[in-house]
Design a protein that fits this description.
The chain is 83% helix and 0% strand. With 191 residues, it is mostly helical.
């Protein structure tokens, strides 16, 4: 038997926790902003659904890279594994920067296409939240590429810990923004 049950548990549990925490970001954002206004909550919820698609895009890209890197590592071809990791990182950054630029340029048209005619306050909240989260795309792409490399090397605990820390920072930042600075979806609260 190639992997024991303990080996599989050590690989699968951190992956499960990491994926849960990845989806938890949107839930935490929505929960904290729910103390703001209805328009802000609606805006965050709508954009979170769009962001989930982007998260899955980068996860799929990095998973494909992880498979190839794992094959090279398993074949003891460290040079090819290293080159593939570099290519995965480069492609992820290029795609994320292009997407980031396109989303920022066409944000209003994109939101209108995706969500139709919505209240102006909700559209404002959508645009604000979309701009903020769009700037995180290159960092998300770098994280996913790095996580893929860690998974390929069997170090899934590292990505689980990083995901946990980033979620804690996100929740603290949200609480400061909403409760201390009295910001809605990162702008003045609309009452």
């Amino acid at each position: 038997m190639m992997f024991s049950n303990k080996d599989l548990r050590n690989l699968i549990f951190p992956l499960f926790v990491e994926q849960f925490l990845l989806m938890f970001v949107g839930i935490a954002d929505t929960f904290v902003v729910s103390f703001s206004s209805e328009a802000d909550v609606s805006g965050v919820l709508l954009v979170t659904s769009f962001n989930t698609v982007l998260i899955f895009l980068f996860t799929a890209l990095s998973s494909g890279g992880a498979v190839i890197i794992s094959q090279y590592i398993g074949s003891k071809k460290e040079k090819e594994a290293s080159q593939t990791a570099s290519q995965l990182l480069l492609i992820s950054i290029v795609i994320s920067v292009v997407l980031c630029t396109l989303i920022l340029i066409f944000r209003h048209s994109l939101l209108s296409l995706l969500f139709g005619k919505i209240e102006p306050k909700v559209m404002d909240a959508c645009e604000i939240y979309l701009v903020i989260t769009t700037f995180s795309l290159p960092f998300l792409a770098i994280y996913d590429a790095g996580a893929a490399l860690c998974r390929s090397m069997g170090k899934t605990n590292i990505t689980m810990y990083i995901s946990t820390v980033t979620n804690v920072i996100n929740v603290i930042g949200n609480c400061i923004g909403v409760f201390v600075l009295h910001l809605g979806a990162a702008g003045p609260i609309h009452h």
